[in-house]
Design a protein that fits this description.
By secondary structure, the chain is of the alpha/beta class. Helices cover 38% and strands 16% of the residues. Bound molecules: iron/sulfur cluster (SF4) (2 copies).
């Protein structure tokens, strides 16, 4: 049984609110973490959604990422997105790309700061299989071409499982030199994704090495590739894969998750036991004030990890989903199975070196 420790986050510095605009979706992804498809009961109405944008602004957020389900399926998505821009918040839209073509003029007219499209394979067969809709791959390719022509900052998000691990290099070939940012994340057993399809720890380590090697070989200009929060931290050999130094899970600190029924969590990847309130019942500012960041008591390897104090156990969402703290999906933990030193001085130097490395490798990408 897991033990939860709660603590009040006294220094909440909001940056990005990730907002599930609707749970309705026109894809049927095997790896969907929110089990999307139908609308969620009690989704916020138009007035509630517009008020929430204004509340996010007054609470100090800098940007809003609209996602789903499929956000472009919500009939008033444009009005909500427009309110985001009217309030001088950065606007990102995370979409499966299926309806991008018919929405591109609206997206452009908003001055959207970034469109993120899911691309899970370099071949039609595998992408369409993972997304559960035939024709998805060609729609995404078309969407990327349209975005390139309209010069809207674009990124792709690839969620990696055993099914598409071999597709990663094909994706790289598709986006190289196109100024398309690329984020790789690991599919974890939340929503409807079955645990048996999650990559194993060796594949996990190889994936992280692939990201690091690709960046080293091509540089960020040619392949602007990063690993998401779930991709492990404080490796001795693999550089920090994120855009900034890893300072521990940011759920409820700089990141906020909003479900389409108004429920508030530190991060949308966390289970519903992490819901901290609902904006229909309380003002967002009140929920934020008492927002607790729940963390698992460090267990297994994390408990005795030399960088626990800085790392805080990695991505909380992944840790909860994987549920295997004895053997976390973590680069350092994997390495320590082979390299753990028993000499106190060497250990101390190693720890300090890892912390400095994590900090400067992050900074050098900014
Ligand atoms: S073992 Fe745990 S605390 Fe240590 S680096 Fe990995 S995730 Fe972080
Ligand atoms: S739970 Fe994971 S994805 Fe969410 S903020 Fe924490 S580290 Fe990032």
């Amino acid at each position: 049984m897991f033990k939860f420790a709660s603590r009040v986050s006294t220094k909440l510095k909001p940056i990005c609110a990730v907002w599930e605009l609707t749970l309705k979706c026109n894809s049927k992804c095997i790896h969907c973490g929110s089990n999307a498809g139908e609308k969620r009961p009690g989704e916020l109405n138009n007035e509630e959604a517009l008020n929430l944008v204004r509340e996010l602004k007054s609470c100090g957020f800098k940007g809003v990422a609209l996602m789903g389900g499929e956000p472009l399926l919500r009939s008033d998505w444009f009005e909500i997105a427009n309110e985001v821009k009217k309030n001088n918040l950065e606007l990102s839209i995370v979409t499966n790309g299926l309806t991008l073509k018919e929405n591109i003029h609206k997206i452009k007219s908003l001055g959207t700061d970034c469109v993120s499209i899911s691309l899970d394979a370099g071949t039609e067969k595998v992408h369409d299989y993972l997304r559960g809709v035939s024709g998805s791959f060609s729609k995404v390719i078309e969407a990327l071409n349209i975005l390139e022509r309209t010069a809207i900052p674009t990124s792709i998000i690839t969620s990696v499982s055993k099914i598409n691990l071999k597709e990663i290099d094909k994706i790289k070939k598709m986006i190289i030199d196109r100024n398309i940012a690329w984020q790789i994340q690991v599919s974890t057993p939340i929503g409807r994704f079955p645990k048996k399809l999650m990559i194993d720890r060796t594949e996990f380590y190889n994936l992280a090495s692939y990201i690091a090697n690709t960046v080293k070989k091509y540089g960020y200009k040619r392949v602007p590739l990063i690993g998401a929060h779930c991709l492990g931290h404080y490796s001795r050999f693999i550089p920090n894969l994120g855009l900034s130094p890893w300072i521990g899970c940011q759920a409820g600190k700089t990141i906020l998750g909003i479900q389409c029924n108004g429920n508030i969590k530190g991060c949308l990847t966390l289970p519903d036991s992490f819901i901290e309130g609902n904006i229909r019942e309380e003002k967002l500012s009140i929920i934020l004030k008492r927002l607790r960041m729940k963390t698992l008591e460090p267990r297994g390897y994390c408990q005795k990890c030399d960088v626990l104090e800085s790392c805080m156990g990695g991505c909380l969402g992944t840790a909860l989903a994987v549920n295997e703290f004895e053997y976390p999906y973590c680069l350092r933990a994997i390495e320590n199975e082979h390299f753990l030193t028993k000499f106190p001085l060497t250990s101390k130097v190693d720890t300090i070196f890892s912390k400095i490395k994590n900090y400067y490798e992050g900074l050098s990408k900014i």
